[in-house]
Each structure stands twice: as structure tokens, then as C-alpha cells.
Amino acid sequence: MITISHLSKIYTDKAEPFCVLRDVNCEIKKGEVISIIGPSGTGKSTFLRCINRLEEPTSGSIIIDGVNILDKNTDINKVRQKMGMVFQSFNLFEHLSIIDNVTIGPRKLLGMSEEDAKKRGMELLRMVGLADKANAMPKELSGGQKQRVAIARCLSMNPEIILFDEPTSALDPTMVSEVLSVIRQLARQGMTMAIVTHEMKFARDVSSRIFFMYDGILYEEGTPDQIFGNPQKSVTKAFINRIRSLDFNIKDENYDLYQMNGQIENFCLKYSLGKKYITFQLIIEEMLVHIIPQYKPVHIVINYSEKDFSISIDFEIATDSTQPLLSQESVDDLSMMLVKGFCETMTEEATDNGKIIHLQLKDK
Hints:
This protein is an alpha/beta fold. The protein has helices spanning 44-51, 76-80, 98-109, 114-127, 143-155, 173-188, 200-206, 224-229, 234-240, 257-270, 276-291, 333-341, and strands at residues 2-11, 18-28, 33-37, 59-64, 67-68, 83-86, 161-165, 192-196, 209-214, 217-222, 243-250, 298-305, 311-318, 343-350, 354-361.
């Protein structure tokens, strides 16, 4: 239904050209529900807006039902009649009643009679649970209700595809579920949809496939089980598990211990880890001073998963030694016993440049 090839978007109206989309290639088939996820600022909304040319791509092609919408001879308004879009902000006409908001498009653009448009509009308002608000004004509705009206208005044009650009981001958390319920209903009815969303559970439940975007590229795609259960790329894993990281490069023995400890304390404060910073500081100091003092530089990474609340610390060192580091005679036994007391597991693995000592900390 939609084939996108080598799509790029570069903004040139800034001090320096900024590439927001880089060579994106994908297909969306009829009846599929595609959730587009990824960190903020990675091109998700721009990608969606390029599909219906609210943004003009810099290069590439977008083929919809055999029509290249980037061709200068294409009637984009005709294509858009097949493609509805629901935005973060509801974009309702504040001076029109709810039923008039829903019927104005079919009357003005499709030539539908007022009677037929109103009949269809009431059907759609009943579908989204707002038939009793038909004569109300937008200012009388909550944010969730306004977004449901926006969906009904979009459906009134009988689209074949609906694009959702973070439809719940402007809503109070208590109103999110009512909008997602309507989108779930559309998915069950077989509507083709592309949804930019930060609602991960919803994306996993409703989607045929997941697009993970990062740094302007389609970084990884797959079924919900693949992306959420077994992502193949480290950046995807970090995003899905909501991993927060803090890292340090210890170049030599003259590192600033006090600055490092301060950063660790701020990290724990930011992510509500309480007094875990004391444990982190103790483990890192014991490792650097008594367990691996001969290895410099050392790259230290603290990882905290907001998904399952797990914590790990990695110590990456450069060495060509094949001998296990943790069993060498130079290792202080008391320090090793102390560090192990905080760990669920303590493992060592070889890398291309040396070794990583991975400490998986206990839950408590």
C-alpha cells in the first residue's frame, strides 16, 4: 500500500544544514498497524508528515497505491482524501459545534449532503462514545474527548490510511486510555494505521510491526515480540528497557574521585535510587584500588533499567592477557569478598580490545 524508498529530509533554513531523516526504506501493507517508537528528536513525526507531504522530503520516493506522491504532477489533495491524520493538538474549529466539526469535511470536500453528512457524523460520534456531545462546543470538552472528536472527524472522510502523530501526548494521563481504546477498535476493524507513540504497552498490544527510529534512520523493525522481547541492536535494547547510563573514563591514577562520586550521587538523585550511590561509590573504589589497580585506562558504565529496576556496573579495560583477571594473585581477597557481597553475578568476558568485568547488582 505504501512503499518508501531512500527517504531523506534536510532542513537548510538553519545556521547549519540539519538532516532529520536519513535514507529511510520501508513498506506498510494494507491492514497493518505500524507503531513508530524511539527517543524524542529522532525524526518520527517528520517521517509521518512526509508521508502526506505536510513536510517536503529532500529526496527519495513515497509510493501510495502505485502513485508517487512526490511527483510534481501528482494531485496531492486527491491523495490526502485517502489519508487522514490525527495530530497532537486537536485542531478543532472552536467556533463550530462538535457535529459541525465532524461534518464540515464531507460537505465541503466530498460534496455530501448536509443530511447524509450529519447521519454519518452521528454514527462516528456514537462509535467514539460522544453522540451526547454532538451539539456541544469544543471548549466544553476534555482533552480526551476532543481527541476522540478529532478521530471521528478524520474517519468522516472515509480514509484508507490514518496517520497518528503522538495522539495522547497532550492529554492528562487519566484521559489516555479512552483515546487508545478508540484506536484499538479501529485496529480490530482492519484500518491501516501508522502511529507515532510513546505508549509502549499500547504499541506492543495493537501493532502488526514496530519501527524503531534513532538518529533519523529506521534503526530496527520487527514484530512486537521481536522488538520488545528480543531486540537485536544495543540502542534498541537500551530504549525498550529504558536504560539510564552514567559512564566515566579513568585515564590514569590521577582521576578526580570526588568529582566522580558527586556525579554518581546526582545520578541516583535524578532516578530516585536513594542511597544506592554509596554502594556504587564503594564498589568502584574497591575495584579501582584493590581489584584491578594495574589496569588503566578503565571505562566504567553504570546502567539502571527503569523497566525492571535492575542495576549493573561494567569495567572495560584494555589488555592482551588471556588469564582471568578476577583470579589473579594480585586481587585483594577482602575487597573481592566485599564487592561480591553486593552482586548477583560477577562475570568476565573478552572483547576485541580487552575485557569487560560485568557486575549485576542484587535487587536489595
